Structure formats: structure tokens, C-alpha cells
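Q: Fold this one first, please.
A: Sequence and structure below.
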Amino acid sequence: MQFYNLLIRYRLWIGCVILIGAVVLNLTGTGFWPSFPLYFIAVIAIFTHFFIGPLRLIQEPMEKGEVDKVEKILNSVWFPNLLYTPIRSTYYTIKGNLAMMQQDFDAAEKHLKKSSSLGAPMPEAEGANKLQLGMMAMQKGDIKQAEGYIRAAIRAGIPDKESEAVAYLSMCQIFINKADRNSLRAAKDFFRKAKACKPTTKQVVDQIKEIEKYISRIPG
């Protein structure tokens, strides 16, 4: 595994060195075909560096919370538009998540929108992506856009119950603010769905308790 990670990290330079070796071998009279295997290996190494990228290296530092190492790996992607589409989507999702951690919400929104436009590798990832965009829209006070994103997140599927509860609570708050009878009925329905997720995160549980004080007074 360690050897494979080293190969991924340095395959561009390995490919370049092998390519130079192939050219030298070719020009010193050996001819093209004897040097062809070196050309082939070099092209594969260089191609996969730009087409697949080094994102496989991100898993370990992410699990350890080593944000600096994650950023360094992302910065080694010189031409993200050359990445295979699902990998490019993941690249922009991670960039967006890092920007959110640094509270750079404009950059986070830009990266997450790029990821969303490319389509997530898994529907659950797409759902999480759209939920984040919805939460950022709510922070900016753009309730209409927030509702659209959160609805899309729920349709796509959200990977964990905590996030799913957040989505339903956000929809509940949106419909409470609309304040007409049908909206209040929908708000209660979203609130029931949020509670059914049985979240355990303190922040989400506290939010449920706060909303329950109000929602319990709504008739129907």
C-alpha cells in the first residue's frame, strides 16, 4: 500500500524520467520498437497523473484531520479540468468542504456548485452537496434558493441520519416562516420526519427542542 501511494505521488516524474530514457534509447540507434515499452509506460504514467489525479492519497490525512496535507495534495492538481468527471466532482466537493471549514463561504459555494454541475459519483454525495448549498443559501437569506437546494438534496438522498434531520428541520423552518395554513401543516410534517431520524448530535437535538416549543402550538 505504501509503495502504491508513493507511485501515485511521483508517477508524473517517474513517467517523465522514463520518457527521457525512451527518447535517448531511441536516438542512440536502438530504434523505436525496442524503446516502445518505455514510451508506453511513460505515457500511461503521465496520462493517469492528469486523468485520475492523486485524490486517492487524501483518504488517510482526511481521517487524521490533517487539513494542511489535504490542501497540499489538492494543490498538486494543476489542471482539474483534465480529471475524469466523477473524480473532478469529488475534487471540487473536497475543495468546497475545506473552504467551509475556513468559513470562506463564497469559495465554498463556487466549488460545490461546480461539483453539483458535474454530477456526484454517488447519489448520496450529490444529496450532501446540495444540502450544503442549501444551508449556505439560508445563511445568505436566499430562502427560495435554499428551499430548492434542500428539496433536491432530499430527493437525491442524504448519507446519514444527522444530516437528513438537518435537512427536514431546515424545510420545517422555511415553511414556518411562510405562515399560511398549508405551509404550517407542511412544517409539522417536516418536523415529524426530522424527529423520526432520531438524531443524537447535541446541536441538532437542541434545535428540535426549540422548534418543538413553537410547533406544538400549531393546531392540526
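Q: Good. Now the second chain.
A: Here it is, same layout.
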Amino acid sequence: MSNHPFVPLRHRAVRLLWGAAVISDIGTWVQLIVVGSLVASGTGSAIQTGLVALATFMPQGIASPIGGLLADRFDRRRVFATALIAQATVTSVLAVVLGAGVRTPWVLTVLILVGSAAGATGAPSYAAMQPDLVPPNELMQMVSLGVYSWNSGRVLGPILGSLLMLAVGPAWTIAFNAAPSSGRC
């Protein structure tokens, strides 16, 4: 078997799951750029802007262990799907709030925090499903795909977020982020 990092993509389930992860990772960075730039331009405060980033990533350390417990006790696909639905719902609410003209930093930060917590709760289920999708000799490549996904999000998300925000505004940019979320389950 080849050691090529993309070998696991020959499996349909891997393509679907990894494709969802790529979209989600890009969306995370799109959302961070959009909301972070709104808070920065609206307040001029580096602290309030930093709190948006903190709300994006802090839940990983708190909600992920809870997600791990859920992944061990319940059907992993169901836990993952529920987390994605919750994340998509919160992202949709964020789009509506932005569309209504709300730019209050604490409102935006709380929504980011709740959506990120939902995503972090589902992350262990995502990771736990991976060994079921590929033969043991492809597991390392499967894990490597996660690194590619996250890094593609870090590169493409800010670019896409900036372009979309200029083209359609912040509310529609976040709405575009919410739309694929609801289809990933």
C-alpha cells in the first residue's frame, strides 16, 4: 500500500467526512475574520478583538473532553451530527444577528463561544470514527488529512472571508458559512 497521504480518499466515507472537515475548518477561519474585523473596527479594542479569537478556540479545551465522553457512550455519528446541527444553528443565528445590524461585541463573542463549543463537542466523535473508515495501514494518512484540512482552513478561510465580506457583507458571509454546516450531517 502506498504511503501517499491522500490514499484514504479512495474511500467514499472518508471523502465525505474529510470534505466536511475542510469546509468546517475554512468556515471557522472565515467566521473569525469576519467577526474579529467587525469587533476591531467597531471598538478599536485589541482586547475585545482578542476575546473573539479566544471564544473561537477556548472551547476546544473545555468541550472536547465532554465530547469524548459522549463519543464513548453514544453512537459517534449521532453525537457528531448533533454537534454539527447545533453549530449550524448558532452560526445561522449569528448571521441573522449580523443581518439585523447587531455589532455588540459581547453578543457576537457569546455566539462564537457557543458555536465553537458545539463544534468542539463533536470533534472527538469525528476523530473516533476515523479508524472505522480506513484499514489500519492507512490510519496515519487519515490523521495527516486532518492536518491538511486545518491548515487549508488557516490559509483559505481568511482569504475567502475577506473577499466574501467585501462582496456580500458580513451577514451573508456568515450565512454562507452556516449553509454547508447543515448539509454535513
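Q: Anything worth noting on the second one?
A: DSSP finds seven helices and no strands in the chain.
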